[in-house]
Design a protein that fits this description.
Elements lengths: L2 H21 L4 H30 L23 E2 L5 E6 L6 E5 L2 E4 L1 E2 L4 E5 L6 E9 L2 E3 L6 E4 L2 E8 L16 E9 L4 E9 L12 E5 L7 H5 L3 H10 L7 E5 L20 H18 L9 E6 L1 H12 L6 E5 L15 H4 L7 H7 L2 E7 L5 H13 L5 E5 L5 H14 L3
Parallel strand pairs: 13-14, 13-15, 15-16, 16-17, 17-18
Antiparallel strand pairs: 1-2, 2-6, 3-4, 3-7, 5-6, 7-8, 7-10, 9-10, 11-12, 12-14
Helix pairs in contact: 1-2, 4-10
Length: about 425
């Protein structure tokens, strides 16, 4: 019998049972026996129906050898699925859709519709790391319900995590774990309550010692959640501290998307455009952290770093406020070049004294670190500015890593930067 016929028959039996009961209220014993027989028959047919559905619709699927479900999937779901060559299999159930695509890191893949309404596609191999993606269904870009969502690209997006061999320092390990908390402070820049995410190292709650602090900034289109969620800051710091490679420290991630009362904005790649967030950081964030947490309140125990837009903020604010910060990390900034509107960067003009009073500049900073992805359009401009600094005697550390403008590069940047700090 077809599944639909089985279901209708079950409903018929149950409906008849109710009718019999209503029509024959006085004959309790007779109806009780009839009702019992009918309900047992319904239960038996239901069991057959469910077994049939399970066998046909929910049979255990086989997957290509070496493939895996990434940690970014909801409840360890089967799709998206990473294959052994780092290509990605997507499968989406959208039986009424006409056109379905996967938009992965700006590259769109047309999906093929299968019998039953499922759409599938396998992408080109991807570099290891964290990649935002979206479904595009009949021209509308939406998050994939099979993926966890993350705030990036100025919206809530799906993402896929492709593991890199040998980089288990970005994973949760059997080591003492710190804590990440979301706390709120009041801003006198935009007159609102604003969030911070704060990592405290293992042992913070039990100890009475004061800790150094890293103020870490997200990129454009992201917010305070980026470094703690996408960037895996807690895992990186837990593992470094447990291995004795980094000092125990507090890491503070603020939302730099702030508008001041006079209309200024925290983004952009100039000293002027940094002023709203500079005020927010110096007047609100740092005082709140130093009032709320046990921290060492001197410049040698403060560091500022960030990625992309946050790298530009760290460059300007960190290097032009040496009385506040003695440690600065600049990851994948585009202000040196490689992005639209960035050209002819005048290093001495932007950081007065860096080339003309180099010895004094070097004395002000314990760690000055710059990094970029090797496939990032910013890389050659970054290398050129680092060479210019080194030719003038600036004590700048530099490293590049395989990858484009993406999170695996920035995780490696934090991993290296943290090991130099507060030594």
């Amino acid at each position: 019998m077809p599944k639909r016929g089985l279901f209708r028959y079950i409903v018929y039996i149950c409906r008849n049972e109710v009718i019999d009961w209503n029509l024959n209220r006085n004959d309790i014993q007779t109806n009780k026996m009839m009702r019992t027989k009918k309900m047992m028959l319904a239960i038996t047919i239901t069991a057959i129906f469910c077994t049939n559905v399970s066998a046909q619709g929910f049979s255990r699927e086989t997957f290509p050898e070496g493939s895996y479900s990434p940690v970014t999937n909801v409840n360890h779901g089967s799709y998206p699925r990473v294959l052994s060559d780092n290509s990605v299999m997507f499968r989406v159930n959208a039986p009424q859709a006409q056109i379905v695509q996967i938009d992965l890191c700006g590259t769109k893949y047309d999906m093929t519709k299968m019998d039953g309404g499922a759409w599938t596609v396998t992408t080109q191999p991807q570099v290891p790391g964290f990649h935002y993606y979206s479904l595009v269904i009949d021209g509308v870009s939406v998050a994939d319900p099979a993926s966890q969502t993350f705030y990036g690209c100025s919206r809530w997006s799906s993402a896929i995590e492709i593991t890199e061999k040998g980089m288990d320092d970005f994973e949760v390990k059997d080591v003492p774990h710190g804590e990440v908390r979301t706390v709120y402070y009041h801003s006198n820049v935009d007159e609102s309550w604003r969030p911070l995410m704060v990592y405290t190292p293992a042992g913070y709650n039990e100890s009475d010692i004061d800790y150094p602090v890293v103020y870490i900034q997200h990129g454009g289109g992201e917010d305070h959640r980026g470094w703690m969620d996408q960037g895996r800051t807690a895992q990186i710091m837990d593992n470094l501290i447990a291995a004795g490679k980094a000092k125990p420290m507090i890491v503070v991630s603020a939302n730099s998307n702030v508008r001041s009362r006079n209309g200024g904005h925290g983004g952009g790649y100039s000293w002027q455009s940094m002023q709203s967030f500079r005020r927010e950081l110096l007047e609100n964030v740092i005082p709140f952290v130093e009032k709320t947490y046990r921290v060492i309140k001197d410049r040698m125990s403060r560091a500022m770093c960030g990625l992309s837009m946050g790298g530009g903020q760290s460059f300007y604010i960190g290097l032009r406020d040496p009385e506040v910060f003695a440690n600065v990390g600049v990851f994948s900034t585009g202000m040196f070049g490689g992005i639209q509107g960035a050209s002819n960067f005048d290093l001495e003009k932007e950081v007065p004294g860096i080339l003309t009073q180099t010895q004094q500049f070097n004395k002000q900073f314990d760690v000055f670190f710059v990094s970029c992805g090797e496939q990032d359009p910013r890389i050659e401009y970054t290398r050129a500015i680092v060479k210019q600094m080194r030719d003038s005697g600036v004590a700048v550390r530099f490293n590049s890593y395989p990858g484009d403008h993406e999170w695996q590069v920035w995780r490696k940047s934090l991993y290296e930067f943290a090991q130099h700090l507060f030594k």
